[in-house]
Structure formats: C-alpha cells, structure tokens
Amino acid sequence: MSTSIKALPAGLKDVEKGSSLWTDAYVRLKKNKLAMLGGIIVISILITCFVIAPILSWIGFDGNEQNLANKFAGPSARNLLGTDQLGRDLLMRVLQGGQISLLVAIMATMLTVTIGVIYGGIAGYVGGRIGNAMMRIVDGLLAMPFLIIVILFREVISGQVDEIARFLIDDWGWSDNDVLRFANLIPLTFAIAGFGWLSMGRIVRSSAASLAQQEFVEAARSLGLSHRRILFRHILPNMLGPIIIYATLTIPSFILYEATLSYIGLGIEPPNSSWGKLIQEGANYLETNITVLAVPAVLFSLTLFAFNFLGDGLRDALDPKASKD
Question: According to the per-residue pLDDT averaged within each range, which of 34-38, 73-77, 209-213 is highest?
Fold first, then answer.
C-alpha cells in the first residue's frame, strides 16, 4: 500500500519563518548607526590593548623603561607617539594603561552582575518582610559615601592580596612585574564592585518581583519545582535583556570610577599606569607638553562614548517599548 504526498497549496509556501528575540534585536541594532560604530570602536580598542600591546611588549617595547635623555621626545620609529616626562614610550604607556582600566571595569562589572542578580533575584522572588529587609540593607549601603566604601575595601583586601602576591613570587617563581601589576587590580576591582552591585540589585529585584507574579511561574510552582529551580531557570533568564543593557552601560561608569580614584591617588600604584593615572600625570605638564595629556584623554573619552553608544543601542534593540517611552 503506497501513499502519496500532495503538494502544498501555493499560499502556504509563502509562510514566513519565525524569528527569535535575539535575531530581531540584532536587526534593530544594525539599524542604529551610532551603536554599530560604538561596537566597532569598542572591539578595536579591546584588540589594540589586549592583542597588539602584548605583541609589542614581546618584541621589545616597554612602557616602564625610562630614558631621561629622551623625555618629551616627538614621534619617531621607536616611539610612535613620542615619550613622556621620564622618557617612557607614550604609546605603550597608554595601551598598558588601557589594559588596567578595561580589566578593572570588566572584572568589576562581572562581579556586580553576579552579586546583584543573585541578591536582587532572591529579594524579588521571596518578597514580603524578608525581601524588604534585604532591600533596606541595600538602601543603607547606598547612603554611605562612595570613597569610604572604597577605602574600607582597599584596607581590608590589600594585606591579603600582598601576601598572595609574595607567595606567587617567592615560592612559585612568578615574574615580579606581572604579579605585582595585576595584584594591584584586585583591591580596586573589589572596591568598585562592592559599591556597584547595589544599583544592579535594586533593578533586578523590581523585575524579579514582577515576574514572580506571572502565570508561567505559577505553573512551575504547581508542577512542584523547587524555588531555586524556578528562580534560576525561569525568572532570571527572562531578565537577561535588561541585565545585558545595564552591564554594558556599567562598564563606562566603572572606567570613570577607576580613572577618578587613580587621579586622586587611590587607584593604580606607580610604576603601573591606567588612563586615570596618565591623565593625572599629564595634567601636571599641560603647559609644557600637551601630548602626554591629550593622548590618554582622547582614548579615554572615545572609549566612554563608544560604550555608551553601544549600551543605548542595545537598550533600544532589546527593549524597544521602553525606548519609545
């Protein structure tokens, strides 16, 4: 017995395939020229700082090598952007400073998102007195001055970080420069993240409280799923869009925080550099040689604008209704 498959009517052949949320968001993002330009600039800066700079360092360029006989020199084949007040290669100083500033901002953002999402998600899902008490703790911490929190975290963490760094250098034989350079990031990263997760927690709490009342959550409860599974498998994934938007807009804020702290002497310690530290050093020679200030300041500003344009574009792409409001 054989069966034959009849041809579909002509009208059914033209049925369009469905598209996912992320596909629609990407289509909307591509239409935003400033957001795409910002994304290209961000990717270019990341590649330059984390790929090209290590290659230049490997072939012999050093941002910490001093040559007082060659200070404030103009561009040359050896020093493409000239030298600073101590004869150090300005290009390598700016690229290595970008590594520090971007690493601090990215790592602090990752910590901020992790802590804020978990804490805010629990507060919003549980609700009631427990949820309100958790948010009152957040409000109390937000009322504290930012610098006090930073100084407190630095004092608490710096001692332990120094001990670990010494252990890696003395017992494991790691390079002094690399260990001390990146160990200097940890207190600053935790200090910024210790303040930054509070706003993320409030945003996530509001979204989680709203989603907890939705029908799909009630259905999950009726099936006997655990609270942890409901929170982490059903509620938090539905907040991925706002979380990505906030994280993208948080990175430039943390770059600015790091620059501010380094500018006032609470950030990266010499001889290491960051964009904030380079701007602080360049401001002292504004009338003598504006290049040492202009180069890090321009790259710093360009990065902030690029991240903000990209964040605004992602917000419009992932949440078009909110962008219209």
Answer: 34-38
40 against 203, higher pLDDT: 40
pTM above 0.85, yes or no: no
Give domain limits for the chain. 46-53+82-324
**Which residues, at least 6 apart from 309, have a Cβ–Cβ distance to it below 8 Å?**
34, 35, 37, 38
For residue 89, the cross-strand partners are 83
Query: Of 131, 136, 110, 128, whose CA–CA distance to 248 is shortest?
Result: 110
Q: Considering only CA atoms, which of 41, 182, 208, 11 is closest in space to residue 119?
A: 208
* CATH of the domain spanning 46-53+82-324: 1.10.3720.10
Lookup: tokens for 252: 């430039």
Q: Could you give the C-alpha distances from 263 to 196, 212, 257, 293, in angstroms and in order?
A: 19, 44, 10, 13
Q: Which residue is associated with the tokens 């907890």?
A: 212
